[in-house]
Design goal:
With 94 residues, the protein is α+β, with helices and mostly antiparallel strands. It contains 3 helices and 3 strands. It has helices spanning 2-9, 52-62, 77-86, and strands at 16-21, 26-31, 40-45. The chain has a 3-stranded antiparallel β-sheet, with helices on one face. It is globular and about 35 Å long.
Length: 94
């Protein structure tokens, strides 16, 4: 994921996956560890996630720099879906 940080934020840092729970959804973003820089949307789940940390860990472990199209600040939806399915979290996509 460091390659993503180098491309998007021009910084050599290891980004992390953070989440925000709203009233109706939970969003997962890739962010620099210091929070400075544009967040990259990874996933928006319209249902409550019992363990957002497990989802964040699966996304961090399963996505690679090639899964981020250079034209938009978001991960490829198909790659995120595949990552969740492989991690046993595919039910979040229903």
């Amino acid at each position: 994921m460091r390659e993503v940080a180098e491309i998007w934020w021009d910084r050599e840092v290891d980004p992390m996956v953070a989440w925000r729970r709203g009233e109706t959804a939970t969003e997962f973003h890739l962010v620099p560890p210091d929070g400075a820089g544009e967040a990259i949307l990874l996933l928006r789940v319209d249902t409550s996630t019992d363990d957002p940390r497990a989802v964040a860990e699966a996304l961090a472990a399963g996505l690679a720099a090639c899964d981020f199209p250079p034209t938009e600040p978001a991960a490829s939806a198909s790659r995120v879906a595949a990552t969740l399915r492989v991690s046993g979290l595919g039910h979040l996509l229903d």
